[in-house]
Amino acid sequence: MTAPTAQEPTVDIQEREAWRISGWIAVLVLLLFIAWLAVSVFFMATGQETIGAINLVVSVVLAVAPLSGLVLVSPGEAKVIEFFGAYIGTVRTPGFWLVRPFSVNKKVSVKVHNFETSQLKVNDADGNPIDIAAIVVWQVDDTAQAQYAVEDHQDFVHVQAEAALRHVAMSHPYDNDAHEITLRGDTEVIAREMADEVAARIALAGLKVVETRISSLAYAPEIAQAMLQRQQASAIIAAREKIVEGAVSMVQDALTKLEEQNVVTLDDERRAAMVSNLLVVLCGDSRATPIVNTGSLYQ
User: Fold this and answer.
1) Which of the residues 3, 34, 40, 255 has the least number of beta carbons within 10 Å of its own beta carbon?
2) Are 23 and 70 within 8 A, CB to CB?
3) What CATH topology corresponds to 113-219?
4) What is the pTM of this model?
5) Quick one: how far is CA 150 from the chain centroid?
6) 126 neighbors 155 (Cβ within 8 angstroms)
7) H helix intervals, the chain
């Protein structure tokens, strides 16, 4: 026999609907047995002890039976019904019900649960230490598996969610210049990937994922300052490239319009000088101070 894998339920029990009728019918039956009990007491009082004792025992037993099967189901919960250790079904419909007498019921919440992982410190795909946390919204889908497949399905979700978050965080870089999925730049993609990862891990417990979100993401304190300087340098370089690209385009347009409209005719040397001056003005950090030339163009 092979051991069960992470994707296979360790307990082969699927949720099914339990037999039930209205609990008020049981109350009516109980009242009838109470009346029977009164008749038994009457027989015993009139000297018919044997008949009275038999009726008394029968009425007590039949009165206890419906009481043992009464179940109250509130909205947002389900009752898993066991009969002498065997699972016989689940009652999800809210109300007052009578199930199989002498059974045991266990409450399972089917509400949507919200869980936030602890702050995890992991290394991303580039080996940089980061602090990351996520929110997992989940719900019980199969009450039988949630009750019998794992020891504690809520604790199971917490452990598996943190394991999935750690795996996803280690599979992608925090941020880089390459065209690939990053933790900081592709939060929607990361959230879907984590949702699939968590769903695959908790399916054996009869649970489903409603939504996942990254709630906290940052470089670890020991490298945060260095990474901030790298990001600032990258931003400065990108801004400079944009400025140079725009300046070259503006200079090219200016020279083209001057020549097309015959405003001035420049040789290669003066053209190079004008290009240099325009680039200095357009790309400089400080405001340029013009110098007025009152002589000829070549002085």
Assistant:
1) 3
2) yes
3) Tetrahydropterin Synthase; Chain A (3.30.479)
4) 0.67
5) 20
6) no
7) 23-45, 49-68, 143-148, 153-171, 187-202, 221-260, 268-283
